[in-house]
Each structure stands twice: as structure tokens, then as C-alpha cells.
Amino acid sequence: MAMKFLLALIFSISFNSIATADEYQPGYSRTRTCTRNEYKEEYFPGTEESPGYVESWTETVVVPCSTTGRSTKQARPSSKQTDNTDNNDCRDGSIIGGLLGAGLTMSGTRGKDRWWAVPAGGAAGAMVGCSLDGG
After folding, report:
1. Counting Cβ atoms within 10 Å, is residue 98 exposed (0-12), middle (13-18) or buried (19+)?
2. What number is the average pLDDT over the span 69-87?
3. Can you give the residue ranges of every domain in the chain?
4. Radius of gyration, CA atoms only, the chain
5. For position 22, what pLDDT does the model report?
């Protein structure tokens, strides 16, 4: 009995989610501060007796956190995208043109030339039928 209880306790503890720094848990607040180091320079002009000099330092500045973590730029609203899909369907014209082209070459050729003329006529007829059908 104690072994089953111990096993159930181990499983219940191991399957609980552990909250990380950026994870949101319902009922709790979440804060995250994003910073950036900025390089600054200030020039102090000099005189003839005392030369001028440049003083430089870096400052840590709080910036808005981005959702991706890579950029703080706001996404531009997307413009209306046009769909460039070709809706011209020429299957019917291709089938009819192929059959007519093969039929015409079948009736116009004799002997050994039929083996290449009929497929060529079918292909040519299919192309003409497709262009006539609107494709």
C-alpha cells in the first residue's frame, strides 16, 4: 500500500507544471521589464590652453517588450491581398480537342505513319481545345 501511495505521489508531483519567468498563470499577475543599453557621448570643447575632450558612457533604458523577443517595431496592418489563382478550367476543351485532333489524324493518315500521327494530332487538338475553352 505504501509503495502505491509513493508511486502516485511521485507521478502527481512530476506532472505538475513548473512556472517559468515568462509564463502566465491564471490568478497571478505577470510583469516583465525589457531594457536596452544605449551608448552616449558628450563633447566638451576646449580652449588654447586646455584641449577639448569626449566623455562616453552607456545607459540602460526601459523599452516596450515585443511578443517575439526580437523586435520592438509594431506590425503594420496587412493590406487586402489579392488572390492570384487561375480559375480558368480548360479540361472539357482539352478532351474534346484531343479527341477531334486524334480523329482527324486517324482519318488522314495511312499505314506506318499512324503510330506517331494520332498521338501528335491528339496533343495538338488538346492544346487548341484548351485555348478555345478559355484556358
Report:
1. buried
2. 57
3. 91-133
4. 39
5. 53
